[in-house]
Specification:
The protein has 274 residues and is mainly alpha-helical.
C-alpha cells in the first residue's frame, strides 16, 4: 500500500472514530480494523490505537475539569485502579502469545458491539438498579461531601475499586466499549449525576489509555508514525463530532458502528479459527 494512501486511511478512520466516540461510543471498532488493513498486526494495531487515543481522552478529561474538581476525592480514588488495570491489561497483551490474542479479540469485539447495540437498555437497567441501591444503608455510601459527591465506604469502597480495576484491565487489553461499561458501573456505585459520571468516565479512560500506552511504547509494540497520524485524526474528529455530528441521529451512528462490529467479529473469527 502506498504511504499516502495508508496515511489517508489512518487519518480518516481515526477522525471517524473520534466523531463516533463523541456521539455514541465504539469508535475503536472503526479505527482498529483499518489499522490492521493497512498492514499492522492485531497486537500492534491495538497498541497503536491505544496510544492514539491518549490525546483525545486527556482532552475530554480536561473539558470536565470543573466537575472533576468538584469530585476530586472520588477521582483520586479511581486513579490508582485505573493505572494498575491499564498496565495489567497491556502486559497481558504483550506477554501472552499473539495466537491467544487473535483468538480472544473476536469475542471482545462482539461483546463491545452488543454493548453498543443495547446501550440504552443497559443505561435504563443501571439507572433503575442504582436508584434502588444507592441509599447509604444499601451500598455503604457516605453522606455527600463538601465537594458534592457521595464517597463509597467500607465494602462498597472495595467493590468500587475492584470494579474500576476490572474495567481498566479490559481497557488496557482491548478497550472497545469501555465507556459504556464504566458509565453503567459508576451509576450503580456512586450518586453522581450524568455530567459528573461523564467526567469520571473521561478521567478513567484517559488514565487507562495513558498507562497502557506507556508500556506499549516502552516495549516497542506501537507503530509511532501511525499513532501520530491517528492521534491527529482522533482529536479533529472528536472536536468536529462534539460540534456538528450531533445533528446526525444517534441511532444511525450506532447502527453503523454495530454493523461494522458484527462484520469485523465474523471476519476475525474466520481468521482465528479458519
Amino acid at each position: 500500500m502506498e504511504p499516502l494512501t495508508r496515511t489517508c486511511l489512518l487519518l480518516l478512520s481515526s477522525a471517524v472514530a473520534g466523531g463516533i466516540n463523541s456521539i455514541a461510543g465504539g469508535g475503536t471498532l472503526v479505527s482498529f480494523p483499518v489499522a490492521m488493513a493497512v498492514g499492522l498486526s492485531p497486537i500492534t494495531a491495538n497498541a497503536t490505537n491505544a496510544l492514539a487515543l491518549v490525546p483525545g481522552s486527556l482532552a475530554s478529561a480536561w473539558a470536565y475539569r470543573n466537575e472533576l474538581k468538584t469530585d476530586r476525592r472520588l477521582a483520586l480514588r479511581f486513579v490508582g485502579p485505573s493505572v494498575l488495570g491499564g498496565a495489567i491489561g497491556s502486559l497481558l497483551v504483550l506477554l501472552a502469545p499473539e495466537r491467544v490474542y487473535v483468538m480472544v479479540v473476536p469475542g471482545l469485539v462482539l461483546g463491545a458491539t452488543l454493548l453498543i447495540l443495547f446501550k440504552e437498555q443497559l443505561a435504563l437497567l443501571s439507572k433503575s438498579a442504582g436508584a434502588r441501591s444507592r441509599s447509604p444503608s444499601a451500598v455503604g455510601l457516605a453522606a455527600p461531601t463538601q465537594q458534592g459527591s457521595a464517597l463509597p465506604t467500607g465494602k462498597a469502597a472495595w467493590l468500587s475499586g475492584l470494579a474500576i480495576l476490572g474495567m481498566a484491565i479490559y481497557g488496557g487489553y482491548f478497550g472497545a466499549g469501555i465507556g459504556i461499561i464504566t458509565l453503567a458501573v459508576l451509576s450503580l456505585l456512586t450518586s453522581l449525576d450524568i455530567h459528573h459520571l461523564n467526567a469520571q468516565k473521561a478521567l478513567i479512560a484517559s488514565t487507562v489509555n495513558a498507562s497502557a500506552a506507556t508500556l506499549f511504547v516502552l516495549r516497542g509494540a506501537t507503530h509511532l508514525p501511525s499513532a501520530g497520524v491517528m492521534a491527529i485524526g482522533a482529536v479533529l474528529g472528536g472536536y468536529a463530532g462534539a460540534r456538528y455530528a450531533r445533528r446526525l441521529p444517534v441511532r444511525v451512528v450506532r447502527g453503523l458502528v454495530v454493523t461494522i462490529g458484527l462484520v469485523l467479529s465474523a471476519s476475525l473469527l474466520r481468521n482465528a479459527f479458519g
